[in-house]
Write a structure and sequence with these properties.
alpha+beta; 8-stranded antiparallel sheet; Jelly Rolls; 15 strands
Amino acid sequence: MTNRVNRSCSAAFTTLLASAAFAVTAAHAAPILPAYPTVDPGPSTTAWFTDRFPPSSFSNVGALFGRNDVLAIVLSSADGPASRAPAFSSAFYNTQGRKIDVALPLPASWIASVYLPASWATTNPGDNLLNRRTDLWATLKDGANAATYFPIIGFTNADATTGFGGTPRFRVFDGNGNWNDLATPVAFGAWTDIGVTFTGTTVEYRINGALVFTDSHADIALGTQVGDVMLQAYNWGSDYTANWSQLAADQATVAQLHALFAPAPTPSIPVPVGPLAPALSALAISLAALRLRRRR
């Protein structure tokens, strides 16, 4: 009887220890993107490098708004259209951010979460310096590593025609060069989870897990990989900060990537019951201590 109990407890402990080791290994292998080290020039798979024009700052500000490893994309009026060098004065360089190479085969997804402060809810009538915009971009590439498509989803409160006084909204950029405003409600003073999936023939956009737009432009099928992921903000000539967190990319679904950031469940350890429960509990503790001594 004693031998059977020993073998049973030993097997239980072995299983428990193996499960713990697997959990640690899986956590280390998670495709979470680096928490915002920067390098210039690129390319790089381990650090974020400038896309069009570097923002004033692109850095990890630690814990903020209830999350850890929060990115701050800081835009400065000193980098606005009226202040940049002539070679960078066009509106093309108003888009300021950084990217990181991921080179993911299909199908693949990428995610990020954006924090939208209450102050961004303004419709800013007549004053484009109150405009706010920040986006999650990516580059689809073909087998020759040439760019074929640029999936973009983000937030803006600027009117698409006048440049100011717009309705705060999420929107998606498609292959026809059009911005598609989404009906998804905007939650201010909160994090919004954004996810994108490249299936090989379509690009699917999700907000807080819900599918909000599917782009099926013919050029999408030219791509064979997700080349890079980008985070951008738009500089109208004012000072503001866009905050992002929980970035990941992999051959996985959006839901699987978001799950990487879910709180770890408390492991359940079987509790012996019945008349032998006290003896079994004591035996399990003794076996664990014995194994530790043997390893030393």
